[in-house]
Amino acid sequence: MGKKVMAAGHICLDITPKFHAGKTRKKSSLFLPGKLVNVGAADISLGGSVANTGLAMNFLGADVRLVAKLGIDPFGKIVREKLRKHKAELCFVNDKESSTSYSVVIAPPGVDRIFLHDPGTNDTFCAEDIAEEFLEEIVHFHFGYPTLMRRMYEDGGRELASILAMVKRHGITTSMDMAAIDPASPAGKADWRAILALTLPQVDIFLPSAEEICFMLDRKRYDEWNARTAKKQGADADVMQVLDIEKDIKPLAIKLLELGAKTVIIKCGAKGIFYKSSGDAEMRKLVSSHRLKKAEWCDLEGFEPSYLQPNIVSGTGAGDTSIAAFLVSMLDGYSLDRCVKLAAATGACCISAYDALSGLEPLDRLWKRIEDGWEKNNRQNGG
After folding, report:
1. Which single residue of 12, 168, 243, 361 has CA 20 to 30 Å from 380?
2. Looking at the domain assignment, is residue 91 inside a domain?
3. Cβ–Cβ < 8 Å for 287, 272
């Protein structure tokens, strides 16, 4: 590809106990006082947007510079050692006062993941941690998981806006991804509509999940989604299975474009991916920057169903790696439609492994599988 990209933001160490194959469990049965759940050996892998999206872009052929903040502690040492095994350029920021972030990922077969997360050094990450020289040669900047980084959402998101503005001053295109929010945490109490109104005008491609962005923009609708899910399928059901793309997802994309994003990619879990792009002057700048075709990128919308994956092991990293495939495909000059197809295909590959990277395949191989008729999940409406 030849273009240099930066992945900055959240990083952590993921500790994922392996559940025995074939034993589908209900979430309500996992956490009971005094209960013992037998599991297999833990998978110790890198997590967070910087590792998942950044290293996936590296695997898919991008020249990647990773910018992350780590503690001087055992978990930090493991993260550094694992990152050095890859060919990506590493720009570590060391924090002697805080501990390295980690997550315990509870991912039993057939159940959406549960995370026990310590944000650690991610909470102190700020604009000063992205040195001006880090931006040299960069053509695209991706920032991930500001929802799990205290400096990014406190004070109305001014630090996040400062980072994006700095990047934009260098003429670099931008993308941003989110992560789930604990409603009881400080992030859950932040005014995310105001934060998005401040930051999205400086975001070319915004790639949240449906649940994440509904929580941020419309808490009443988010609560209604969960109530609808519980009523139709029970407390352990996947909320995406009761949602309608046109009625539930598209209105969120329209609102995000109104707030300033140029292209909106909404990840809809096992359902697929909804996309909508604007046709304004700022969108045309994105198209021009990467020599894309206007007709293939401006004023478009659509839904790409997910690809069927018979060997589902864990959803860890599926959204992050699908973002990587989308961004690398865009930088390769592909159409918006093809970028979304490759994103959905990469997500389907990712869930065949416990970690984010082991299941990935090169984009040319994925495109051949798509052209050969890879079967899709064509269910768009709620059940």
Report:
1. 361
2. no
3. no
